[in-house]
Amino acid sequence: MANESGTWIMHGVAENDPRCLHTVEEAVTYINEVGFLPLLKNEIPDFSLEERTVPEYWWSGDPKHDPWEWRKLIAGSQKAAYGKFFDKKAGFISKEWFPYFANYRRDGYDFDALWDDEKASMRQKKIMDLFAEENADAELYSFEVKQKAGFGKEGEKNFEGTITVLQMKNYLCMHDFRQRKNKKGEDYGWAIAVYSTPEHLWGYDHVTSAYKEDPMKSWKRIVKRMNDRYPKVTDAQIRRVAGISGEGSMAPGRKSKRTWQKDWIIPANPQYYNVVGAFEESNIVTWKQSSDIHVGDMIYMYVAAPYSAILYKCRAIEVDIPRQYSDDNLTVKTAMSLELLEKFEPGVWTLERIRQFGVYAVRGPRSMPGELKREMMNDEADE
Question: What tens digit of pLDDT does each residue of 226-243 get?
C-alpha cells in the first residue's frame, strides 16, 4: 500500500519473529501447508505472503531474501501454481488444492466446452486457442500471447483484463519468468511472465481430478479451509478474495431468451447412478440440470467408463424442476425430465470417435458440435 508521498509501505514481520519466512523453501512449505495464499496483503488479516516476510527485503533484487524474486522461483519450480488467482491479484495455489479451485471456478467446464456453451468471450477464445490441442504444452511470453492473439492498437482491446479473467477461472497461470533472447540467443532485459495452462504444469488428469464432484462442494471445501485457518474471516471476505465473479456465466435460476432448439452433450457416470438400468425401466428419467437447457432441446448422453461413449439421444420435456439432493458425489438443486428418443450401441459413438469432432472430454454439459450432429444424422440416414 502506498502512503501520501507515493512510497510503497509493506506489512510484514521482524526477521526474528517465529512467523517469519526466511527462504523460498520455507515459503513453498508454508503455501503447501495453507493450500492457497495471495502474494500481497488483502482484507483478510495474515492471509498473504507479504505478512509473513521482512518488509525491508522486498524489491531488493536478492533472490535469497526478496519475496518478490521468490514468486519467480516458485512459479518456475512447479511446486505451486502462480497467477492472478485472488480478486484479480497475484497469489499461489498448491498442487493439492488446485483441482478444487479449477472445478469451482470452471464450473466443471473445460475451455472448449465453455466456448461451445457461449460462456466465454471471443477475446478469451483467441488467447486460449494458442494453448489448444497440438499447442497444449505451449509456454508463451506475455508479449507473445498479446501479439499472437491479435491484441494491440489495431486489434483487440483489454488484453490485461482478458488474461486476468482466464487466470481467475484457472485456465491459465504464470508458468515462469524469463528474460527475452536476442538474435544470438543471449538473455537481455527484465524477466517477463511466461504463460501456460495448469494442465501443462501438472497434467490434465490431476487438474481435472475434482470434476467428479459438484462445483459447490469444491467451494465448500475452500470455505471450510479458510474458516479453519482464519476463524474471524467473514463469508463476504471469503467470497471477495477467494471467490470469482459470475462473468461469462448464467446467473443461477436465470434463463436466456433463446427461442431456438439447442443440442447438448451431457455426462453420466454409471459409478454414481445406473443410467443404463434407468432407461431399461422407463423412457423418461429425471436428471440433474446445470445449464441453460430449454424444453425441446436435444440431449445426447455420454456415459463414462466402462462405456466411454454417447449411448442415448433424449428430448428435454420439462426443465427447472426444484430438487434438493446431496450425497458424497452429487448435489442437485435443479432437475429436468428427459424423454428417450434413441439408443446407440456402445461401440459406435465412442470417445475416440467423437474426438475427431472436437469433443476431447465431457466433464460437464456442452453444446453439440455441428459437424458431430451431422455425422450422427448421416449414420441414421444410412441405416
Answer: 999 999 999 999 999 998
